[in-house]
Specification:
It is built from 26 helices and 24 strands.
Length: about 900
């Protein structure tokens, strides 16, 4: 039931798909999904984004055609232009749809993958490589990675679209795209999409997962190494500055720094390995006097210089902190002379570091802020610095990223040693690895698609081989030696299957031959005239019964047109009203010159017009080589039909016996009571004249009532007075039918409602036949509702007139008519109540009676109960016109 419902939905969708408004709606949805498929992309790694908008481009090509596919591609490329800002995305992606659609076909998935592959290899990838490297001025490696990614993206999308479309065709075999649109789809296309995605997607995910994990591991290594290096550099720098401060302080303590500036300059410039950039003499108030180098904005030290001078017992060196990114140190000589302050360039301190990271790093001293700790040397922080501007691509922001490490510097004022080095070399290496992975995946996708095409060719060749082998096997009953390779299991299976198939065909042919022999024997022995014609109306069978009836032997009629022997009767009646004929009246002129009227019907279930078959020379049924017909003499046919009608009436009379008994018992009881009352009163006193007259009139009325019941029974059974066709009121006859079986319906607790319009209704025919038809329908309804609850047993008879047609609806509240019985319910001797004594002739005779009244009847399937629709032509009112 579910399968039939799904098939109905699919067939309706197929019909709707041909509607222009639905095609426009579906195309608009594809346009929206294409744009959203590019917006909601998947960022795999370092700006390698996979967009899925072109999936809907190919779905549009498969279902709606080239014009819609190109429109969807144009709409989908809008987001790419918005994202990257380069106009030629329109050109790249729209041209892909144009070229593929021009070479492919609507509904075809077998060519789509290979055409997309050819586009990107021959045109798309080279053009993207040129545009990215020249127009966007990207490095060649980056342009190559992006072009490879776009090729991979295009191949992946066409695989997804092929999988989606072929899966729908596979899961819903009743769905068929229009024949003019489609090219034969192959199972190999579905297998290619399945295995392509099954292989490619896991490898793609694992490749990018591994790249991301390696990148994260490399960044973690960089951070760990930076933390080690900054601590090592801090220790080395502090040691270096203290030693150099003592060296230069001792050397300059022998010179009068206030007067011999020239000598100090010569001394400093003579040592090019590690010399201070500025030297200051520190006064007691902390003010500074420049003795070497260029003056800066440093004018006074915020230090208790006097305390340092008073507490010194020997010469000492101190790290002061930072000044403009450089290091400061202080020398306190033991002699009590002025203190010396030194400023050391960061590059000078950096030169003593032996770390590879430090060699390519920015090295500087940073003054501490009140919020920053300034105590322990263990206060070290490491971080990755990169831009967060959303307009900058992920790859570019990582290329500009750096690892920054800083640690607190042991000095008299808060200061930190800060080391920063760029991640660009590592990122470039990761980019190269990513580009290599994308290229590998792109190459793998190409191999999968090419392999799928090879698989498609092999599959088609195997099917052709199977077809040719089957044809040869059916001709020779054995396969050719070159067609079957016994070394392969598939070929052995073919041979085994063909052997079973050939045996099945042979058995079927034998069964058909035996059936044909039995049928020929039956035609020779049956007493009913039977003949058969080919599709051109020429006689192929003329059985002995028909030979005896017509006087023509079989050898005189075979091969001749049937129209030479049969002629349409002037009073032919269509047997199946309002439909194509199944039975017609024909006249056959016997060899002796006598005219015989025949009722001819076609054997089988075809609903073709047999009048056209029997009178036309053109081929009307090319799919069938032979059509069989059964003929019966009209006289004997009508006699058999009359006997069947009489049997039907007797059966109905038996069912109405209780009703008749009740109708007769009532007037007889009244007569008996009235007569008894008169007799009793006459015994004891004189009976008044008025009393006798009243009782006599009552007895007369009840006697007439009983007489009418008996006359109704005689008319119903013997058809007395009903030979003529007259005008009658069907509503009145329906009420009479209800009265005939009123007692039977009352005992079954069946309620009948008759709804008729106020005006007069007249139809023409035999009233007793109409009455019997209504009795049959009421009896049928009563029997159908035997299992219903007593309160639910209801029959409604509704009359309505439209123009010159009367419609009668007879509805009951029974279980209804099943779909399989709907077409057979009027067949003779077909009954669903045979176990309860049903004869199967009631509805058949009802149909025959209504047909004789120039009416039609059909069963209508209702949700609850059964409904019979009867139609008659009405008789015009004599007062009109």
């Amino acid at each position: 039931m579910r399968r039939s419902a799904s098939l109905t939905l699919i067939s309706r969708f197929k019909i709707l798909l041909s509607a222009s408004w639905l095609r426009a709606l579906l195309g608009s949805c594809f346009c929206i999904f294409s744009y959203l498929g590019n917006v909601l992309n998947v960022d795999m790694f370092f700006g390698v984004n996979f967009l899925f908008g072109s999936v809907f481009v190919w779905l549009a090509m498969f279902t709606l055609g080239a014009s819609w596919a190109i429109s969807v591609a144009f709409i989908g490329s809008l987001h790419t232009v918005e994202l990257w800002g380069h106009w030629y995305a329109f050109f790249l992606f729209t041209m892909e749809a144009v070229l593929v659609c021009s070479l492919g076909k609507m509904g075809s998935t077998s060519r789509a993958s290979i055409l997309v592959l050819l586009y990107w290899v021959v045109f798309g990838a080279p053009m993207a490589l040129l545009l990215y490297s020249q127009a966007l001025d990207l490095p060649w490696s980056t342009s190559l990675m992006i072009a490879s990614k776009q090729t991979l993206n295009g191949l992946l999308n066409v695989m997804i679209a092929t999988f989606a479309f072929t899966s729908i065709l596979f899961v819903f075999p009743a769905f068929r795209i229009p024949k003019k649109w489609k090219e034969a789809n192959s199972y190999s296309g579905l297998l290619q999409a399945i295995f392509g995605l099954a292989f490619l997607l896991p490898i793609l995910l694992s490749e990018f997962y591994e790249l991301k994990r390696n990148f994260q591991r490399n960044v973690s290594d960089e951070l760990a190494q930076a933390e080690i290096n900054v601590r090592r550099s801090s220790l080395n720098t502090a040691t270096f500055l203290k030693l150099e401060t003592v060296f230069w302080g001792t050397s300059l303590s022998e010179i009068n720094v206030s007067d011999d500036l020239k000598q100090i300059e010569q001394l400093v410039e003579a040592d090019t390995s590690a010399s201070p950039s500025q030297i200051y003499s520190v006064k007691n108030d902390g003010s500074l006097q420049l003795v070497y180098g260029q003056a800066t904005n440093l004018q006074k030290l915020a230090l208790p210089v006097q305390i340092l001078r008073d507490t010194q017992e020997k010469q000492m060196s101190f790290l002061l902190g930072c000044h403009e990114g450089n290091f400061m140190s202080l020398f306190a000589p033991a002699s009590g002379t002025d203190l010396l302050a030194f400023i050391w360039r960061a590059e000078t301190a950096k030169s003593i570091s032996y770390s590879q990271h430090t060699a390519r790093s920015d090295f500087k001293c940073v003054s501490g802020s009140p919020e920053e700790p300034n105590g322990s040397s263990d206060e070290t922080s490491v971080a990755v610095l990169r831009g967060t501007d959303p307009t900058v691509s992920t790859l570019r922001s990582w290329l500009e990223a750096a690892v920054q490490a800083q640690t607190s510097f042991a000095s008299l004022s808060p200061a930190f040693l800060q080391v920063r080095h760029t991640l660009k070399p590592s990122i470039l290496q990761v980019q190269q690895d990513t580009s290599a992975a994308v290229q590998r995946l792109c190459f793998l996708a190409m191999l999968i698609i090419l392999g799928g095409q090879i698989l498609d060719v092999l599959f088609r060749k195997w099917v052709a081989k199977f077809a040719s082998t089957s044809e040869a096997y059916l001709k020779n009953c054995k396969p050719s030696a070159s067609s079957i390779n016994p070394n392969f299991r598939e070929d052995r299976a073919i041979s085994f299957w063909l052997d079973r198939f050939a045996k099945a065909v042979e058995n079927e042919e034998q069964s058909k031959e035996q059936a044909q022999q039995k049928f020929s024997l039956l035609l020779a022995q049956v007493l009913t005239p039977v003949f058969a014609t080919d599709s051109a109306g020429k006689i192929k069978v003329w059985n002995p019964a028909l030979q005896e009836l017509s006087g023509y032997p079989e050898d005189e009629v075979l091969g001749k047109p049937i129209s030479h022997f049969l002629k349409r009767s002037p009073d032919s009646i269509v047997a199946n009203d309002a439909q194509q004929a199944k039975e017609l009246l024909f006249d056959v002129t016997t060899k002796s010159g006598k005219t015989v009227h025949l009722v001819i019907g076609k054997l089988g279930t075809e609903k073709s017009d047999i009048g056209h078959v029997l009178t036309s020379e053109e081929k009307v049924d090319p799919a069938s080589s032979t059509s069989y017909f059964i003929a019966q003499n009209v006289g004997s046919f009508k006699e058999a039909q009359a006997k069947l009608l009489h049997a039907s009436r007797l059966a109905a009379l038996g069912e109405m016996a209780s009703s008749f008994a009740h109708e007769l018992n009532q007037p007889l009881n009244v007569i008996a009571l009235a007569a008894g009352g008169v007799a009793e009163r006459a015994k004891y006193d004189e009976v008044p004249k008025e009393y006798l007259i009243a009782k006599a009139e009552r007895i007369e009325a009840q006697a007439l009532r009983a007489g009418r019941v008996i006359q109704g029974i005689r008319n119903f059974v013997l058809e007395i007075g009903d030979e003529d066709i007259v005008e009658f009121d069907p509503v009145a006859k329906t009420k009479s039918a209800n009265d005939l079986i009123r007692e039977q319906l009352r005992l079954a607790n069946v309620t009948v409602h008759i709804n008729a319009p106020s005006g007069e209704i007249n139809i023409k025919g035999r009233p007793i036949l109409f009455e019997q038809a209504m009795v049959n329908l009421l009896v049928n309804a009563k029997q159908a509702m035997e299992r219903q609850a007593l309160s639910e047993r209801k029959v409604s008879i509704t009359f309505s007139v439209h123009d010159t047609e009367l419609t009668i609806l007879v509805k009951d509240t029974g279980p209804g008519i099943s779909q399989e019985n709907l077409e057979r319910i009027f067949e003779p001797f077909f009954s669903t109540k045979k176990h309860n004594g049903g004869s199967g002739i009631g509805l058949y005779m009802t149909k025959s009676v209504i047909k004789e009244l120039d009416g039609s009847i059909r069963a209508v399937r209702e949700v609850h109960g059964a409904c019979f629709e009867i139609k008659f032509p009405t008789v015009p009112d004599a007062s009109e016109g």
